[in-house]
Amino acid sequence: MDEAQADAAGPDGGARAADPGTGAGGDPRPNPGTNARTHARTDGWSDDGITVVPANQATWEDLEQVLGAARCHGGLCYCQRFKIANPEWRVTDDGERAHRLRAQSECGQPTAPATSGLVAFAGDEPVGWCAVEPRTAYPKLLTTRIPWAGRDEDRGDPGVWAVTCFFVRAAARRTGITHVLARAAVEHARRRGARAVEGYPMLTVPGQDVPWGELHVGTVNAFASAGLTEVSRPTKRRVVMRIDFGEPPAE
Q: How many CB atoms lie within 10 A of CB 140?
């Protein structure tokens, strides 16, 4: 799959980790008709007919509909690959990863002060996910070579945010949702006080296929649509992109 085809895509899916009636650990999921969904519709971003909301303003059922079938890194990731070190990853099962995402996202808690990502809706249907947080929230990212090769960066700077993952449900791919999520992620980070936002997309070549599992980091075109520009090319296939907001104006 080339970049023109892949811009709205995420890695392919498989079976869900849990029964639709329960979340990680067997606890009931929030009712999708609660105030979380109502609140989300009044505090999100609308772009190309897609509404994007912080994940705490969606429900666990919404997240499960998007990520409960997202197989990458050899299992159901639940967006934990940059959160968990390799030794721990090998002994962490799908249910535990789902449990961690549920806690990190604060889904169903619209007044929570922080969340770990964004959820895209087409009408009332959840169709996509984007992980965006301060870069320091991703322990494995801090020790991965890709973001840092050839750069003199303070890895502990909490003012720099990172977009680490996109996933779009199969039926909604190739409709521009990844671009919409990238733009919303930049605005979300800016509203939350970020000085800069980074992404680490895959460089694709027209006519050359890229496995779905590699596209979870996004594409260059998606990040460019959100205003990010190239900082470095640490490998032949990976690009570091960034947008700086500058210091906030003095009061």
A: 16
User: Which residues, listed in sequence order, are joined to residue 117 by a DSSP beta bridge?
Assistant: 131
DSSP code, position 154: -
- Tell me how far apart the alpha carbons of residues 20 and 196 are, in angstroms, rounded to a whole number: 38
Among residues 25, 169, 167, 163, which one has the least CA distance to residue 94?
25
Q: Are 48 and 100 in contact (CB under 8 A)?
A: no
Cα–Cα dist 185/78, whole Å: 18
User: What residue spans define the domains of the chain?
Assistant: 3-244
- Residues 130-178 have pLDDT tens digits of 999 999 999 999 999 989 999 998 999 999 999 999 999 988 988 899 9
User: Rg of the chain's alpha carbons, rounded to an integer?
Assistant: 17
d(CA 176, CA 174): 6
Instruction: Give the architecture-level CATH label for domain 3-244.
Output: 3-Layer(aba) Sandwich (3.40)
Diameter of the chain by CA atoms?
52
